[in-house]
Amino acid sequence: MFSQPITALRKKQAGLLISSTTLIFVAFCSTFYSRIFCAITGAPSILNFLHFPVVLFVMIIAICSGRVKDRHQIAVAWALFAGIWILLCVMFASAFLNDAGIANVVINFMILGEPFMFLLAISCIGFTVEKLNKLRRWLLISAVINLVLAILQRFLLVAGHISAAPYDETDGVQGVFFISGAGGYISTAVSVSFSIYCILYFKIIPLWIRILGLVATIYQIQISDTKQVVLVSGLAWLILVLSKFQNLKKLLIYGICIALVVAVFLWAVHNLETFESYAHWLSRDDINNSRTGGGLDVKLEGIRRVLNYYRSPLNWFLGLGPGHTLGRLGGWTINDMWSILSQLGATKHPLYEEMWSFINSNWIALSTTLYVPLFSWAGIWGDQGWLGVAAYLFLGFIVWNYFCIDDFCKWLALTIFVYGFFLTQMEEPGFMLTMAMLIGLRWHEHRINLTNRNGSCSCRKYSAGAYTSSPISHH
Question: CA–CA separation, 426 vs 268, rounded Å?
């Protein structure tokens, strides 16, 4: 008697599952392809912010349509949700203390909170094996498009067939993030992450093709002169090695690998013409020995100037207000979009003019982004104070503790941490949503494989289980 209603309910749930899975990729595409879409079509740059409401909508749909019953998975989702709310509350408190506009709060919250909202949406989806494999294929295609476009752009820019003004034929190599200020670094970082993911886990593809993808990624680093991606990846790897100190075997293996990579790199720098730019970059003793105080002093100048504006002990805890100091929003976004954001009640701080006057008059800051005093960790601290830093680190702890189920995910999380000290890549949606997607993808892959090994339920669904740190191959 109840067979027809039950069948209808199951079909409805399947429809929700398909819709939620597709929406995850739609949200990803709204960030990943927005720059190249605007560059090709001439669409207004405001469309680059479309992904904010899209990701918010997808998170709400994923939460409302989710059918999660496992207590552990529910607890993880609630922890992430609570962390997001804490970050939002800190931003509102900071805005209230410093008379920052509501628009500042909303945009800054979306910039910092969006990747966690996206990961929350991913965690609420009950993926089947088929749906997960389809998502992996879509992501692989996106990664290949980004890599191929970057290489094509190099040849087209050199030949003069396209223009990336105000960027030259090196800085203009930006893949799908064409044309944007940090597009080259974001595109290369995405290619590096995807190529390593494919090497480790996309084993349905022949090994020689996966290695070819890694070689092409190295070539992209060379033609785009994105040396900082190499530096950040290496530092993240080094931190990961140090985190393995209690495991002597892993520490030894990773240490040997790092030593070999460093040795090969240094040999290439001093013996191969292709790596000439790295030799110049590593030999910039004039920067660190500068009469102006050196690169580190320039890097810390923004922090000193933020402290000059403290008027209350509360500033130590809540900063100078969202979008008022050294992050992406206060560093340039509000000023670039002022004609629109001012109509929405956004506010600017005098620190903006001070910082750019300092940067434009300082040859060290202009010579390399390594020493630019505008960077994400300083921005989070300057805008929201130490409570803001604590709220963001709490979200990072949740991701590290519950979602980083293997060394690859931990390496991705550590690259984000390190990038926070180099400009504002930690606040670039294209980069951050890609990292969230890869971490979420690995999390689901691991859960499905673990369930299949335990044989506790059908292969087409998964239930929560214990985590292990060992990589699991997928065929």
Answer: 30
